[in-house]
Amino acid sequence: MKQLKNSLTYFGIKVLTFLFSAAILSVAVFYISRLTPTNPLQSYYGDRVEKMSVEEKDFAKEKLGLNEPIHMQYIQWVKHALHGDFGISYQYKQDVKEVIRLRIGNTLLLGGIGFILTFAGALILGILCAWLEDRWLDRLLCKMGTLISCIPEFWLSLALIFVFSVMLHWLPSSGAYSVGNAADPMDRLVHLILPLAVVLSGHLWYYAYMIRSQLLAEVCADYVLLGKAKGLTPRQILFRHCLRNSLPSYISMMAISIPHILGGTYIIETVFSYPGIGTLSYESARYADYNLLMVLCMMTGMTVILCNMIGQMINERIDPRMKANQAARHVEVTNE
Question: Could you report the per-residue pLDDT of 305-315, keeping only the tens digit for each?
Answer without folding.
Answer: 888 888 777 77
